[in-house]
Amino acid sequence: MQKQMKPLLLLAVMLCSVFAKGQTLDDGLMMPKKYFCTGFLYTYSQWDKYWEGTLKRDNQNIGTFSSHNIMYVGNYGITDKLNVIAMAPYISNQSNKGTLTGLQGVQDLTIGGKYRLVRKQIGENRLSVFGVATVSTPLSNYTIDLLPMSIGLGSTNLSARGIINFRLKQGWYVNFSPAYTYRGNVALDRNHYFTDGVAYYTNQVRMFDQFSYNVNIGLIKQGLQTELNFYQQNTLGGGDIRRQDMPFVSNRMNASTIGLLVMYYLPAPKYLAFRFSTSYVIDGRNVGQSFSVMGGLLYTIHFTKPTSTVNEN
Fold first, then answer.
1. Count H helices, E strands: the chain?
2. Residue ranges of the domains in the chain?
């Protein structure tokens, strides 16, 4: 069986890149001072093939695995250089074959701070550099030892990210963002487990850190944002799923994902935006080859007189 957490992590990092005007933790945009963007996003993801280590296969004990994700998101501009972003999803997982019971519940709270370090004009173009720090931790005592049905991995994570963004006068942009994530250990509801060829007589499981990066190419013009993106995530250790076995919480989970994003600010009501994205895992290790679609509405509240538009940030 394949572990849904990697698709879930991809959703949390990519599809939960939930805002247009500087709403994500990995883009090159900022929410202006005293602007608050908030809303809900719905994501549907499914797969019927997965990588058991590096072996791509299906599993008739699972059939097609599907996940529904409803996420609340909020981004507030403390200053024009500093944004605070928060998100928390409710997730429901199930499969259409086999005997595993689906699981659902509130997953993890993620809070991040994004600070613009550099903003430099190069002719009519602009270079921006950002630093981002985030922390995530479970909001509920969900089961982590029944993958792929588990809604999360249960670890508390700290992440540091850099962002380099180059934007042309015409609205085209290129964005590169690497990140390192420290993951805390987790505890099982049992005192013995076997992974990576070793038996452990403890309930404590080491969670290996992760390195990731994304590359985004897009256009923002007249209230419309379109983007193509690539996301790569590598776990820095961990074993593979054993042949014909269930996934384990500390498995090495690597994934390469391509995606498309469209964001549009509606003419009316003013400050309401529609966001749509889709993504597909093209290669991986101990992850499902998931296809995901996301849609949602976001509303920007101005606690001061509006002074900028989506094209000016």
1. 1, 19
2. 5-312
